[in-house]
Amino acid sequence: MVLREVVVNSEIIEYNDISGCYILRPWAMEIWELLKEFFDAEIKKLKLKSYYFPLFITENVVQKKKDHFEGFAPEVAWVTKTGNSELEAPIAIRPTSETVMYPYFAKWIRSHRNLPLRCNQWCSVVRWECSNPIPLIRSREFLWQEGHTVFATKEESDEEVLHILELYRRIYEEFLAVPVSKGRKSEVEKFAGGLYTTSVEAFIPNTGRGIQAATSNCLGQNFAKMFEIFFEDENDPAQKKKEKNKRSLVWQNSWAYTTRSIGVMVMTHGDDKGLVLPPRVAPIQVMVIPDPLEDADMTAIKEVCETIVYTLSQAGIRADLDARENYTPEWKHSHWEMKGVPLRIEIDVKDLANKQVRVVRRDNGAKVDIPSTDLVEHVQVLLDRIQDSLFETAKQKRDACIEVVYTWDEFTAAVNDKKLILAPWCDEEEVEKDVRARTEGDLGSAKTLCAPFDQPDLVEGTVCFASGKPAKTWSFWGRSY
Fold first, then answer.
1. Is residue 274 domain-resident?
2. Environment class of residue 11 by beta-carbon count within 10 Å: exposed (0-12), middle (13-18) or buried (19+)?
3. For this protein, what is the EC number (predicted)?
4. Would you place residue 295 in the very low, low, confident or very high pLDDT band (cuts 50, 70, 90)?
5. Number of other residues whose CB lies within 10 A of the CB of residue 309
6. Which of 10, 268, 412, 470 could cross-link 275 (Cys pair, CB 3.0–4.6 Å)?
7. Which residue(s) pair with 50 in the sheet?
8. Cα–Cα distance list, 443 to 182, 205, 314, 440 (Å)
């Protein structure tokens, strides 16, 4: 089943009449809220404060900071009219918030006592993608969190970049059961105006495409220069001599992940029946369904079902009961399979007599009869096994797609075979641009995804697959979303 069918039939999204804009239904929002609950708690440990900045950016700010905006220019949506009147100057809708936030950072920061400044906001952004929108993968409006932090030193900045990147890895691998690679983006692919960009990269075996799952950027001091964000540094010898106009530039980071994470999860685990949800992000982890037989005592069965839901809920397991009488048990089974609920508990009159329940796994369809007295323990074990199994299965499929290449011919064959390519590279911008140009086709071009932190040995004398120059790093390549 293709992504567009899965997300609609499983009630993740509904299409809106504006192309590329989607209605996130409760099933999607509850997954997003579970991810938010984890991430928000973690960044608050770092003393991050919550902010909300306006979504509008004035044209004069855009023009002043056009070097930064150039990277987003094709995607920026503009408001030009209010009511029947034309605006004196168009107003941009944020594609990202640096130009909204940083003028105020310059106002709020005066000395080392104002540092570090750490803020985060949960909001939506608009990027009017020129290419064909894909639900939850390339949307024109999407939800995200964006963290913006300011430090006195590069060391503090570097440390946070990697700390946040590890949190993003945990979101994907520990919650969404999606294997990712941590690494550094190339100069061509890094965040516009930043010093360097790190990312977690996923790969979808069914389509043979990589996908940038989240980024953590060290912005360096470029934005500090752009927005004149200075501080009086107590460690600066010039300050100790009380010399005038001797101020230091701050160091900045920005980092974000989006509702794309839900789309990556759907494509990684979904099957012909619909969604397959990892238990840690499933809004409902266990759905209890009574299965009435002829002449069955439905009152007794329903009472047992309600007791099971209560018992599981008290143990912290997200459980619910589908007691609707106008649908058959078979329809309910199919419905909750479509929505990806990890476990289904079925109870009929025989189960009642035997003081047991039948438990069915969504990921592999396995069925097992469990004594009612040990239900909580068995269910928790099964949920943990499903979570682990989904990750291991996804990792095996991803790893099977990795192909190590050393030559251009091997590279082009792997691209055409929809592989995740690991290749030695000279790390030169012009070579990367040339690779993209030479592989351009109906399916798009191949590009660097990241240079993984977990680098294989680079044997002396190894040359770049594309240029023949001495290789400086191993890098993942492939087509991407």
1. no
2. middle
3. 6.1.1.15
4. low
5. 19
6. 10
7. 120
8. 25, 15, 50, 8
Q: What is the pLDDT of residue 149?
A: 98
pLDDT-derived band of residue 276, with 50, 70 and 90 as boundaries?
Answer: very high
Q: Are residues 344 and 471 in the same domain?
A: no
Assess whether pLDDT exceeds 90 at residue 443.
no
Question: How many structural domains compose the chain?
Answer: 3
434 occurs within a structural domain? yes
Structural domain contains residue 349: yes
Task: Give the pLDDT confidence of 178-215 residue by residue, as tens digits.
Answer: 999 999 999 999 998 999 999 999 999 999 999 999 99
Domain harbouring 464, CATH code: 3.30.110.30
Partners of 425 in beta bridges:
473
- Same structural domain, 71 and 152: yes
Could you give the CA distance from residue 214 to residue 171 in angstroms, rounded to a whole number?
10
For 329, the 3-state DSSP assignment is helix
Q: Quote the CA–CA distance of 12 and 264 in Å, as a whole number.
A: 13
**In the chain, pLDDT over 90 holds for what percent of residues?**
85
Based on the fold, state whether residues 262 and 343 are members of the same structural domain.
no
CATH number of the domain encompassing residue 343: 3.40.50.800
Q: What is the pLDDT of residue 235?
A: 67
Q: What is the pLDDT of residues 45-61, one digit of tens each?
A: 999 999 999 999 998 88
Q: Which of 100, 188, 118 is nearest to 159 (CA)?
A: 118
- Cα separation, 336 vs 331, whole angstroms: 9
Q: Alpha-carbon distance 18 to 379, whole Å?
A: 43
44 & 7 share domain = yes
Q: Is the dihedral angle over the CA atoms 448, 449, 452, 457 positive or is it negative?
A: negative
Q: What is the pLDDT of residue 298?
A: 81
Asked whether residue 49 is assigned to any structural domain, the reply reads yes
Q: Do 170 and 290 fall within a single domain?
A: no
Domain extent at residue 426: 402-478
Question: Are 14 and 149 part of one and the same domain?
Answer: yes
Above 80 in pLDDT, residue 69?
no
Question: What values do phi and psi take at 235, rounded to 5?
Answer: -90, 0
Task: Please report which confidence band the pLDDT of residue 73 belongs to, taking 50, 70 and 90 as the band edges.
Answer: confident
